[in-house]
Amino acid sequence: MKNIIIINAAVMLMAGIGCSRGEYIKLAGFTQGTSYHITYESRDSINMQDQIDSLLADFDSTFSIYIPGSVISRINRNESGTVVNDHFIEVFNKAYEVYKATDGAFDITVAPLVNAWGFGFTEKADVDSAMVDSLLQYVGMEKVVIEDGRVIKNYREMMLDCNAIAQGYAVDVIAGFMDKKDIRNYLVEVGGEIRTRGVNPEGNMWRIGIDRPDEKNIIPGAYLQAIVELQNRSLATSGNYRKFYEVDGIKYAHSIDPKTGYPVMKRLLSATVVARDCITADAYATALMIMGLDKGKDLLSEHKELEAYLIFGDDEGNYRTYITPGLRRYLHEK
Q1: Is there a single domain that holds both residue 302 and residue 250?
Q2: 256: helix, coil or strand?
Q3: Domain that holds residue 69
Q4: If pLDDT is split at 50, 70 and 90, which confidence band does 12 have?
Q5: 162, 187, 211 - which closes a domain
Q6: Is the pTM of this model over 0.70?
Q7: 153 and 198, same structural domain?
Q8: Using CA atoms, how far apart are residues 85 and 262, in angstroms rounded to an integer?
Q9: Which one-letter DSSP state was computed for residue 249?
């Protein structure tokens, strides 16, 4: 499952070039079928665009389901001799951790169902209940393991899709690169997933806009529901209101429930998660959309290390919100 891009960090980045602490440099580009934006303080005015692009290209060679020679594509084709690298192992282990914590709501093996419903990397199928039942046997992270650097699947028909977690991890990889360069103030954003350190060019906490979850709000950053202040934290958002299609008056969303095999259309419209690292925030934001409002609240009450902002609709079609206690002082609703 691919996270919907509903945060536009570029809109909220502060200018302020020429701050006394050092020059703030802005980078932008494209990766993983989306865009990235990076702002960082540089005391030596070095532009790291080429190094960042190289990191992201290497990242794509592992996780891109659209590159035939990528590690994940070779795994999905059951190519013998495919050995996974440290990046893949870290993402797989985090995915399994969140899979267990969410009782299977987050599951990177849901790819066959995502593909069948037309939200993956193959053509949409004519889905019926018999097809769903057939595909469900190929879903479940307990059916796949890594042994001696190789992915072992219970069924050859099983496929992996890390889009719901890989962008968050890409943010962490770039942030780690920045840390090694001893860059103390930065914001890294890839496809709407964000990690921050230090302060923005004005010396304040970084300010991130969260979009209003309206299907007519097609331009990220055009209509904001809230603004979050971040410092040394990560943020990711998932939602169903942009990526869907309609058949005979029925909406089918891109979030597929790994247990039922069907698209999720619940009251929960948008889930924003704040965590220490972005891979965690990314995975749990997706999981919350699958779990829905009530189960999502229960999960958050058990995981105090997570903060969240949930936007849902009431019976009259109005927006309602739920904010975890630790996030209230840093979140400002519009």
Answers
A1: yes
A2: strand
A3: 64-162
A4: very low
A5: 162
A6: yes
A7: no
A8: 32
A9: T
Last residue of a domain, one of 162, 178, 211: 162
Same domain, 128 and 41: no
Token pair of 126, please? 């004519």
**Band of the pLDDT at 220, cuts 50, 70, 90?**
low
> In the chain, how many domains are there?
2
In contact, 207 and 243? CB cutoff 8 Å:
no
Is 321 found in the same domain as 239? yes
CATH number, domain at 85? 1.10.3980.10
pLDDT at 328: 96
Tokens of residue 135, six digits: 């595909």
Q: What angle do CA 193, 199, 201 make, to 5 degrees?
A: 100
Burial of 181 (0-12, 13-18, 19+ CB in 10 A): middle
- Do strands 193-197 and 307-313 pair parallel, antiparallel, or not at all (unpaired)? unpaired
What is the domain-level CATH number for residue 240?
3.10.520.10
Confidence of residue 311 (pLDDT cuts 50, 70, 90): very high
Residue 210: how many CA atoms within 13 Å on its side-chain side? 28
How far is residue 69's CA from residue 48's CA, in Å, rounded to a whole number? 27
Of 59-68, 83-92, 98-107, give the lowest mean pLDDT range: 59-68
Same-domain status, 135 and 264: no
- Rounded CA gap, 283 and 301, in Å? 17
In terms of Cα–Cα distance, which of 216, 199, 253 is closest to 14?
A: 199
Report d(CA 312, CA 305) in Å as an integer: 22
Kindly compute the dihedral angle of the four CA atoms of residues 92, 94, 95, 97, in this order, to the nearest 10 degrees.
Answer: 120
User: Could you identify the residue written with the tokens 């029925």?
Assistant: 250
Quote the tokens at residue 50.
């080429």
